[in-house]
Amino acid sequence: MKLYGRDRGIFGTESWPNYDDIYKKTIEVATFLDLPRFPEITEDCYLHPNILCMKYLMEVNLPDEMHSLTCHVVKMTGMGEVDFLTFDPIAKMAKTVKYDVQAVAIIVVVLKLLFLLDDNLEWSLSNLAEKHNEKNKKDKPWFDFRKWYQIMKKAFDEKKQNWEEARAKYLWKSEKPLYYSYVDKPVAYKKREMVVNLQKQFSTLVDSTPTAGKKSPSSFQFNWTGEDTERTCFHGHSLQGVLKEKGQSLLTKNSLYWLSTQKFCRCYCTHVTTYEESNYSLSYQFILNLFSFLLRIKTSLLHEEVSLVEKELFKKKYSVTKKKSKSKKVRRY
């Protein structure tokens, strides 16, 4: 495909795309073209929440044992059903799923179920895990939320700083120069060649490291399998410190839970709920910021998805609160 003339202005973009815009445009195009039902998303598909949850658990260095809990939440909410996940543009009630955002929201809900994330309980459980690990160094270590937070916070800050610097230094240019007409083609290529040569000479003069070539693409942004002793890998750690046995089943020691959204909007607006950092705990803010950075989305968008998962998981809770609010109203004649 050759680009020149007016197409140069269309494809010569110098801005970063927004997740919401891409998502909405994709839905609009699929609906406008009357595309048939997309291929079914089963448990073997990469977009299934069970597989995506495993991916992001590995990404943020959380224990593998959490995967069984995320699968249980997916089963209880019905978010793993084929009809729920498969996109059908021509259906009357077409449902769209933000697959990665949904999977990350499920992980956040599981973290709240285990540690509550109220800036209190997670640190108390961390003290118990730290004492147990000191006494039983030969056994499988318990997951220490405080230690995970410290390691993850440092890695997250470094990764975010590098990303912001790379984004600021990014050169908005294509691999091949764009030109308006075939007459300008040799001039454009000559200018590009001169610029590349000058950059190489300048880097040699200032004794700077030359720009590295393109790295092979990877869906993971963090690497926890290296030989870095300061970055502990928590994948094999146990959740015994936050779970208790009751018969043949496991229950969380934490019996409390707070809903991210107490009341949803009744009006037909575009948002589900508003997110203000000052209203939430620091640990909850950190986890939202971490996952939002991985997905390159707004924190409020992830918070809304967490609220939707909770709405499906605690349907009885929301229905009870709704009935209570109705009973308090006085009928007027």
UniProtKB/TrEMBL annotation:
Annotated GO MF terms: RNA polymerase I core promoter sequence-specific DNA binding; zinc ion binding
GO terms of biological process kind: nucleolar large rRNA transcription by RNA polymerase I
GO CC annotations, alphabetized: RNA polymerase I core factor complex; RNA polymerase transcription factor SL1 complex
Matches recorded under InterPro entries: Rrn7_cyclin_C, TAF1B/Rrn7
Domain Rrn7/TAF1B C-terminal cyclin: 15-205
This protein's record includes keyword Transit peptide: no
Taxonomy, superkingdom: Eukaryota
Keywords associated with the record: DNA-binding, Metal-binding, Nucleus, Transcription, Transcription regulation, Zinc, Zinc-finger
Transmembrane segments: none
Principal subcellular localization: nucleus
Subcellular location as annotated: Nucleus, Nucleolus
Any single Pfam family the record assigns to this protein: Rrn7_cyclin_C
Keyword Transcription set for record: yes
Family: Belongs to the RRN7/TAF1B family.
Name of this protein: TATA box-binding protein-associated factor RNA polymerase I subunit B isoform X4
